[in-house]
Description:
The protein is an alpha+beta fold. Helix content is about 35%, strand content about 20%. A hairpin with a 5-residue loop joins strand 8 and strand 9. The radius of gyration is 22 Å and the shape is globular. Bound molecules: flavin-adenine dinucleotide. Flavin-adenine dinucleotide (FAD) binds near residues 75, 81, 139 and 418.
Amino acid sequence: MNATITTIYEELRGFLDDHQVSTNETILEQHSKDESYHTPSLPDIVVFPETTEQVSAIVKVADKYNTPIVPFGIGSSLEGHVIPYDKGISIDFSLMNKVLEVREKDFLVKVQPGVTRNQLNKELKKYGLFFTVDPGADATLGGMAATNASGTTSVKYGVMRDQVRNLEVVLPDGEIMHTGNLAQKSSSGYNLNSLFVGSEGTLGCITELTLRVYGIPEHIAAARAAFPTVDDAVEAVVSILQAGIPIARVELVDEHSITQVNRFSETDYKEKPTLFLEFHGNEQGLNHDIEFTREIVEDHGCEEVHFEEDNAARNKLWEARHNLAYAYMHLNPGKKHMVTDVCVPITELAGAIKFARKRIEELGLLGGILGHVGDGNYHTSLMIDMDDPEEMKSAAQFNEEIVEYALERGGTCTGEHGVGIGKMKYQQREHGKAFSVMEKIKLALDPHEIMNPNKLVHTKRRSL
Ligand SMILES: Cc1cc2nc3c(=O)[nH]c(=O)nc-3n(C[C@H](O)[C@H](O)[C@H](O)COP(=O)(O)OP(=O)(O)OC[C@H]3O[C@@H](n4cnc5c(N)ncnc54)[C@H](O)[C@@H]3O)c2cc1C
């Protein structure tokens, strides 16, 4: 520890207990990485605050010594978001993990940022409610707000930004503020909820969230539909959306990924491009939606369709889909998982996916394609040998090409995983003049550039 870090450590110990401040090698190492292929880097200190006031005091110490801060949820992000390349203090929110209030009749819940989505849903179930956003990992709600996460249900319920009613935020000078209120709608002032959602810890620390929740649907049905080609599957989705069927989930898994699912989850799904679908509603409406969907998928050449209304079968189907990333990792030991993430207008999706598949094969890469097709968002799951520079180069080239393809067609370099360090190089190209406005916002709120520096926007901060 250098002299400044020793002083910071001692000041932090002045108001935090022993178990709340650590320089232990294992703890530092746990906070040096996310779930991506980006190179790890250790923080100097990890802290575990229990209250907003403690977060505020930590930030004030960091500001006083001009030391970087990196907020940390569970570290499941995929673009190097939480890696402290400029060292400093990693603030781990795992001890701020309480569901503070369920306002059943307002369909609102107030939580601390370290609550995970599964923990929240377990609590909400007692009230007949659920929280809709479901990224593949059991992420924290603070991390999910900070990355504007989404998942399989956003086609019906929207993304994280649509669920946030109010945030309590500790600003880079340690002051505490609220971004919203409890009202269903508001025309009052700049929309700071939207500014802080997706800000990736670069503007402040989220210490409390008030979120929209929904009643658990009376009936839920799920289906699996296999198609001859990806084109047929995507066109079926466009027709389902055009028909106004209120589909709750619609996920595409290509045939390569279905093979991985079958091997990992011991299923025997047809190894063809497959849509996983889900419908929410009352019995009568649901029966109508199911029949209409069946007709549409059959019109698009669907080779096999299975509907599951039984809870266990439905859970198995979605578990298989959610475990896909882990299936790739488990079945390809020694390789690192690299997930890409672009989003295009839905009419461009079939072309984008075909282009990605073609390039995966031409570049000799190993991987499959899956996507939240109702949103025009797709991922490729690549398995990379990190010791093979040629393979690393091909993967990077592939990523560049699919981002370019998306940007040329009015899409975005990230549909849901966020920018971190991995997508910074595309920001100027994607946002143009708006990117310099983002840089001005960053500097106005964080003039000393201590909040997650050199992520999302370029800052002038030198590495310490
Ligand atoms: C297998 C797998 C599947 C995934 N599937 C999806 C998916 O379908 N959709 C999707 O959107 N993402 C997905 N992800 C990515 C990841 O789960 C999300 O980005 C998630 O929102 C990150 O939450 P976290 O708690 O892990 O945050 P972290 O990774 O710890 O942090 C993410 C970012 O948020 C900031 N942050 C964390 N907490 C706070 C806070 N309290 N205040 C301010 N900033 C904070 C961090 O500084 C960092 O910039 C997946 C990841 C994995 C490993």
